[in-house]
Amino acid sequence: MLILFSVLRFLHIIAGILWAGGALTMSFFVAPTMGATGDAGKQFAGYLMAKTRFSTFMMVNAVITVLAGSILYGIDSNWFQSAWMHSPTGIGFGVGALTGIVAFVFGGMLGNINKALGMLGAQIQGKPTADQLTALQALMARQANASKWNTVFMLITIVLMASARLFG
Q1: What does R_g of the chain's alpha carbons equal in angstroms?
Q2: Can you give the pLDDT of all 168 residues of the chain as single tens digits?
Q3: Among the four residues 7, 105, 115, 121, which has the most C-beta atoms within 10 Å?
């Protein structure tokens, strides 16, 4: 059991670092830079989303983080039946898990929005039509909103996961 716990913890932490680091780097640095650099930023975004495996990388790390974390929480809580769940540490990890799952949902939404933006971008030749511009603006507004909430929940998750052991 110790080996399983150690492997799961390693996977949870490493994948979580890669997932959260990628998400926060995108939110704080890459996305604002893409927005500020006009057509070059759009080209970069199109290439990043269509030609690289960034979205797959993020999704794989998110899934590993959530699955490994769920199993770890199950082990620690005797499969959701122990008093540990109601301890300060258990509550810290539990709330951190919930906010992580919410971040996972927002990350999935961002992936879908980015795919839609990529498809729309591929359709636009030169100056966008009025309909294309309306669709582009709507997708960008949804992207900004989902990104904001993904960042908030990701930061809450990081704080709780890093400090929950100190609560009890």
Answers
A1: 19
A2: 899 999 999 999 999 999 999 999 999 999 999 889 988 887 888 888 888 999 999 999 999 999 999 999 999 999 989 999 999 999 999 999 999 999 999 999 999 998 888 888 878 888 889 998 899 899 999 999 999 999 999 999 999 999 999 997
A3: 121
14, 31, 89, 153, 164 from 61: Cα distances, Å: 9, 20, 25, 16, 22
Asked if residue 150 lies in contact with residue 106, where contact means CB atoms within 8 angstroms, the answer is yes
Amino acid letter, 34: M
Please report which residue ranges of the chain form alpha helices under DSSP H.
Answer: 2-25, 31-36, 38-51, 54-76, 88-123, 130-163
Contacts of 18 (CB under 8 A, 6+ apart): 57, 61
If you ran DSSP here, which 8-state letter would residue 164 be given? G
115-118: long-range contacts at Cβ-Cβ below 8 A with a sequence spacing of 24 or more? 115/49, 115/55, 117/45, 117/49, 117/143, 118/46, 118/49, 118/50
- Kindly list the distances between the CA atom of residue 13 and the CA atoms of 55, 63, 65, 66, 69, in Å, as whole numbers in the listed order: 19, 12, 7, 10, 9
C-beta separation of 18 from 61 below 8 A: yes
